[in-house]
Every structure is written in structure tokens, then in C-alpha cells.
Design a protein that fits this description.
The complex is a heterodimer. Chain A has helices spanning 3-13, 24-34, 46-55, 67-73, 82-91, 105-113, 150-158, 176-194, 197-207, 211-220, 236-244, 254-257, 262-274, 279-285; strands spanning 39-43, 59-62, 96-101, 118-122, 143-147, 163-166, 227-229, 250-252. By secondary structure, chain A is an alpha/beta fold. Chain A has an eight-stranded parallel beta sheet with strand order 7-6-5-4-3-2-1-8. In chain A, α8 packs across α10 and α11 runs parallel beside α13. The relative contact order of chain A is 0.15. By secondary structure, chain B is of the alpha/beta class. Chain B has one domain: Rossmann fold, CATH 3.40.50. Chain B has six helices and twelve strands. In chain B, the strands form three sheets. Chain B has a seven-stranded mixed beta sheet. A three-stranded mixed beta sheet of chain B has the order 5-6-9. The longest helix of chain B is centred in the C-terminal third of the chain and has 12 residues, at 181-192. The mean pLDDT of chain B is 94. The interface between A and B is large, with 38 and 45 residues.
């Protein structure tokens, strides 16, 4: 399928006239829709997966090391062992996600063969291709991709992503980058809705994004797919902050299982994500959670994962 | 009299339901607390993760509040996870998962498989001329229906849309296809009550 065809498909998907057509994109965006208002938790073994499900997670991300440990260990981070992913699939009834390296379409093929419910083409793993992302239209499984700004989000959507997450900075326990990315994405969406039709050509050029997708945002005021937040959420207040900034759900990586007492923290973050505008609930669930993960300042990290991806 | 339709907004596709209801000119609010529930005349329970919603229904105190309203006959429409929450018996649910038992059906969670097995198909609706394009996402399956349950649509052998009194359930997602006919049926049901 050529680029014009991809964009045409995307546009058709968001109009009511496309209702009689069948395409994996609708069921895939539909699953993203079902995950809204929820918390997707990184887990490294079946025990953690059970804790996550018990706490009310909407899905788990199965991986061998949480981002904080990938950051500490260094080296090349790859797709997880299928045995480990199968082990997690066996113990939970909620959707299971897993990560493939950016551009590593064979890892994605393997994850699809394993029946993973959502594939994360993730900057947390070491990129396999420094120019190309995976052609996600070549798959039946849905993909989630990270973005630091609107242009990046639209390029991923034009490649077939069914869900976007703001990247933040994984493994830091520091929400500052997630806030930067959410503000950038939603700020540009708001500005585009104010632009006139001639200005949209320049917006498309500046963003490096397909014009029809930019024009569609000008009309709807929304991204074509759901947008969640990832990278740096460590507390219930962080989750509610992301939601109030416009995120529609949150991913929590190291923030839960690198804290002192994962189970109550996981439950509290689930509550905070649902009741994100209710400060009384937030005050109640933020109590007595033990120490959050220590976290690190952005000036202390040697590598920014958010810069991976093109 | 204007009626307010609440959409259970603990988690899931509640905004998509609100979008369809607004297109029909129906006033709609998000329901996260017992106080929110007092504002509504009917309730939609959306798709999402039934385990998550079940957990949040307990912690928010909404489970008992909704249960009481259902016993008073509040009209309710559950789609996918919402259908699971309304069923009498949930097979393959978590041991601590509670359902309202508002409709005499048994359901099996994720009966069609994983996401890769999710599908779309046209189904014939009882009383409507044109088929409805139905989206099934990690859908539950009705494995038994009671005598008092009216079947409104089937996909192959499976019951996918059903009603018992003021309780309506769908195993698919009518909120995802910009076709408001099933929501209209629910609003019609609300006017009967």
C-alpha cells in the first residue's frame, strides 16, 4: 500500500461512511479505546503480573527488565524471551503487551505469533533501525508507539499505530519529560485548530507529518487514535497530572515494582487514574504508600531514550 | 420530561458512548461516584476491562449503589465488559469478581480468543431492516440464556444482543461504528419505563 493509500485508509476510518468496510485498524483502535482511563503496568514475571491484575491494571507489559534496570545495566536491550511472555499470558486474563525494538519487524512478527494483544515499538529497547520504524499495516496485531511531539505521533499513525503514548523518560521516576511531551502534543493540537486552511500546509511541513492528518486534526481537535502517557510516572499524583493534561490512560513502568511496596502503590495509581479530577480521592489514596522509586534528575542520565525514534 | 443517561466512567470506552448519546440529543453525564449516580435516570456500562471495573466498583462504593438502583428497575445497557458485569454467572472470571446478576445469562470472558481473534461482522437485528456492523473486541460469549430473556440478535449461533425487562446487553461495541440504532433502542426502552 502506497503512502496515499495509507492516508486514505486512515481518513476513511474516521468517517462514518466507512462503516461497512472491515479492517484490523478498527478493532485495534477499538482495543485502545477499551484501555482508556486505565493503568498498564510493566511486569517482569508472573507474580508481578498477578499483583498488577489484582490491583486493577487494564493490561500488563511483559518485559525482562523494567526500564530503570535497563538504564542501570546498559548494553543492548532486546525483545523478551517468548517463554517469559507465555508465562505471563498464562496467569492473567487482561491483555498482555510486549515490546519490540524500533524497526525490528521480525521481533514484531514473533510477538504476533505469540498472540500478544498489543505490540509496543519501544524506544526503551535499543533501536534496530536508525531510519525506519516498522510498517505496522503489515500486521494484524495492534501497535503502540511513543512520541515526544505531534509530528512524531502523526508519523507513527501514518505507519499504522493504533495507539500513541507520550514517551516521557522511562526508568527515571521523573515526570518532567512526560509533562513536556504531553504539553507539546496537546499545545500543537490546540494551535492547529486555530489555524486557517493555508497555514495547515506549513504545519504539515513543520511537523513532518502527512497533510491530510493535520487537516483532520484541524477539523476534529483530536488525534486520530487514543493517546496515553508513559515514562516517569511514580505516584498517584503523577498519574492524575498526566490525565489532567489530556492523556487518556497511563503506562507505569519502573514506578510500581521499583517502589518499596508495589501492591498498594499499584492500587493507588489505578484509583488516581479513574478519579483524576477529584483531589479528595487523590489525597486519600496518596497516603502511606511507602517510598516511591528514588528517581533521577534529567541532568544525571547518560542517555535519553526519548531521542530514539525518527 | 428530559432524561439523563449516565455512562459508567470508571474505565473503558465511556466517551465513545457519550458521543453516540449526544448525537441522539440525549443528555449524558459520567458516573464515577454514588453522588453522580443520583443524577441519572438510566445507565450505560461500557466496554473496557471487567476485572478493572469490578475492582473500581467496589472501591468507589458504586457497586451497592448501582445494585440498589437496578433492583428499583433503572434501565441499563451493558456492552462487552458491561455485559459481563450485568450477567448472572461469569465463567472464567476472577474469583473476587462480582457481577450484578441483572440479566439471566451466563457469559464466558474472552471466549473468542486474544486480540488477534477480534473481528467485525454484519448482524441482523430483530425489528430493524438493515444489518448492523458489529465490532467484537476480545468479546465475551453468552453460554446460557434464561427463559425470560429476549434475543435481539445473533452472530452464527451466539446470542450477541439481548434484553430482559429494562436490562439490555451486547457482546459487541455499538459505540464504535457511528450507527446509533442500538442506542436508540435503549432510549426507547427508557421511555417505556
Amino acid at each position: 500500500m502506497g503512502q496515499a493509500g495509507l492516508v486514505g485508509t486512515l481518513i476513511a476510518m474516521t468517517t462514518s461512511k466507512a462503516n461497512s468496510a472491515s479492517s484490523p485498524m478498527r478493532v485495534n483502535r477499538g482495543l485502545a479505546e477499551m484501555l482508556k482511563g486505565g493503568v498498564i503496568m510493566d511486569v517482569v514475571n508472573p507474580e508481578q503480573a498477578k499483583i498488577a491484575e489484582d490491583a486493577g491494571a487494564t493490561a500488563v507489559m511483559a518485559l525482562e527488565r523494567v526500564p530503570a534496570d535497563i538504564r542501570r545495566d546498559g548494553g543492548v536491550a532486546r525483545m523478551s524471551d517468548p517463554e517469559m511472555i507465555e508465562g505471563i499470558k498464562a496467569v492473567v486474563t487482561i491483555p498482555v503487551m510486549a515490546k519490540a525494538r524500533i524497526g525490528h519487524f521480525v521481533e514484531a512478527q514473533i510477538l504476533e505469533a505469540l498472540g500478544v494483544d498489543f505490540i509496543d515499538e519501544s524506544e526503551v529497547l535499543t533501536p534496530a533501525d536508525e531510519t525506519h520504524h516498522i510498517d505496522k499495516f503489515a500486521f494484524t496485531s495492534p501497535f503502540v508507539c511513543g512520541a515526544t511531539n505531534l509530528g512524531e505521533a502523526l508519523r507513527r499513525i501514518s505507519e499504522g499505530a493504533a495507539l500513541i503514548r507520550s514517551k516521557g523518560e522511562a526508568g527515571t521516576g521523573n515526570v518532567v519529560e512526560a509533562v513536556r511531551h504531553l504539553r507539546s502534543i496537546f499545545g500543537d493540537i490546540r494551535r492547529i485548530t486555530q489555524a486557517d486552511s493555508a497555514e495547515l500546509f506549513d504545519w504539515a511541513k513543520k511537523l513532518g507529518a502527512p497533510l491530510p492528518l493535520v487537516q483532520e486534526i484541524a477539523e476534529t481537535g483530536k488525534l486520530q487514535v487514543p493517546i496515553f502517557c508513559a515514562g516517569g510516572i511514580a505516584t498517584p499524583a503523577d498519574a492524575a497530572l498526566a490525565m489532567q493534561l489530556g492523556a487518556e490512560a497511563v503506562f507505569v513502568g519502573s514506578g510500581i515494582f521499583k517502589s518499596d511496596d508495589p501492591s498498594p502503590r499499584a492500587r493507588a495509581i489505578v484509583e488516581a487514574t479513574t478519579h483524576f479530577r477529584d483531589a479528595h480521592v487523590l489525597a486519600k489514596v496518596s497516603r502511606n504508600l511507602g517510598a516511591p522509586m528514588t528517581g533521577i534528575g534529567m541532568d544525571k542520565i547518560n542517555e535519553r531514550y526519548a531521542e530514539r525514534g525518527w | 420530561m428530559s432524561r439523563v443517561v449516565g455512562v459508567l466512567a470508571l474505565q473503558g470506552a465511556f466517551e465513545a458512548h457519550q458521543h453516540v448519546l449526544r448525537d441522539l440529543g440525549v443528555e449524558t453525564v459520567q458516573v464515577r461516584t454514588s453522588a453522580d449516580l443520583e443524577l441519572v435516570d438510566a445507565l450505560v456500562m461500557p466496554g473496557g476491562e471487567s476485572t478493572t471495573m469490578s475492582h473500581l466498583l467496589q472501591t468507589s462504593g458504586l457497586f451497592d449503589a448501582i445494585d440498589a438502583r437496578l433492583k428499583q428497575g433503572m434501565p441499563v445497557f451493558g456492552t462487552c465488559a458491561g455485559m459481563i458485569l450485568l450477567a448472572k454467572v461469569v465463567l472464567d472470571g476472577r474469583s473476587d469478581q462480582r457481577s450484578f446478576g441483572a440479566i439471566d445469562i451466563d457469559v464466558k470472558r474472552n471466549a473468542y480468543g486474544r486480540q488477534i481473534d477480534s473481528f467485525e461482522t454484519d448482524i441482523a437485528l430483530d425489528g430493524l431492516v438493515d444489518d448492523f456492523h458489529a465490532v467484537f473486541i476480545r468479546a465475551p460469549q453468552v453460554s446460557r440464556i434464561g427463559e425470560d430473556v429476549t434475543v435481539l440478535a445473533r452472530h452464527k449461533e451466539d446470542v450477541v444482543l439481548a434484553r430482559q425487562g429494562s436490562v439490555m446487553v451486547a457482546s459487541f461495541h455499538p459505540e464504535l461504528t457511528n450507527d446509533a440504532r442500538i442506542h436508540s433502542m435503549f432510549i426507547g426502552l427508557l421511555q417505556e419505563v
